[in-house]
Amino acid sequence: QNQAARVRVGKGDKPITYEEAHPPHYIAHRKGWLSQHTSNLDSEEGAADRTIEDVFIRKFIYGTFHGCLATELVIKRRANVIIICPIFIQKLPPQKFYFLIGYTEALLSHLYKCPVKMEVQTVEEKVVYKYL
């Protein structure tokens, strides 16, 4: 009866995104990884630490930009730089977006002791892949 990480089929009136439409076993076939780092390679350490950091970053971004995220975050790690790639809905004025982006970069850079950058894209409304 339970299906983990899947959107349940309803009456056809629930909009879902491309990421939500495909179940987890399609990662690397139809959709990509949402966290890109090298800790899962052979003889690399710190996979659990990276996972905890990613969960904190996601919750922090969801709280800071409440109701503005159009899709899931993509978190990339290149050397010691953390790059956060969100797609936002244009609900807030641009000045507030710029302030929140700078606030997020500064606070997370201070917390993780490494440069944090945000590569932001905005859309007018949430992009619907299909209805379930």
From TrEMBL:
Family (UniProt): Belongs to the universal ribosomal protein uS3 family.
Pfam families per UniProt: MRP-S24 (PF14955)
GO-annotated cellular components: mitochondrion; ribonucleoprotein complex; ribosome
Gene behind this protein: MRPS24
Annotated localization: Mitochondrion
Alphabetical UniProt keywords: Mitochondrion, Ribonucleoprotein, Ribosomal protein, Transit peptide
Domain of life: Eukaryota
Protein name: Mitochondrial ribosomal protein S24
UniProt xrefs under InterPro entries: Ribosomal_uS3m
Single biological process term from Gene Ontology: translation
Species whose genome carries this gene: Latimeria chalumnae
